[in-house]
Amino acid sequence: MTMYQGKCHCGHHEWEVKLEQDQSKHILCHCDTCKILGGGAFTMNQIIPKANLKITNGGDPSNYKYKGDSGNSVNCYYCPKCTTHIYHHQEIMGPDTIVVRTALLAEARKNFDVGAEIYGKDKMKWEKEIAHTFDVLPPS
């Protein structure tokens, strides 16, 4: 297991993320919500146990909820000063699993490959496939 350091755009929030070797890859999400939140064609993420994220500076992030495709709530946790989204908790995944933004980990931005793509059904028509692409999510 490797520890990675993350911080928000303004530096108010800092955190550590523990990833297993097979998690040291980006999962690209092409859903419309990620496009709106990030202002780009996709976000870079990894699915981890909540216990593997430790906020080390800035206190508890702010949060809000929206309804995901499943109809269940998605809780978004972000810096209240710069609005950088640190992680999301999709209630359908259970209480102990979160989606952390790997693009906010400096080492990950430089060194991670893409492991998979999700919400391929929402990809921009000009995007080429980078890794195995699931129409929505991989089978459970």
Automatic annotation (TrEMBL):
InterPro entries: CENP-V/GFA, Mss4-like_sf. One of its GO terms (molecular function) is carbon-sulfur lyase activity. Keywords: Lyase, Metal-binding, Zinc. The keyword NADP does not apply. Residues 4-120 form the CENP-V/GFA domain. PROSITE patterns: CENP_V_GFA. It holds the Pfam family GFA. Belongs to the Gfa family. This is CENP-V/GFA domain-containing protein.
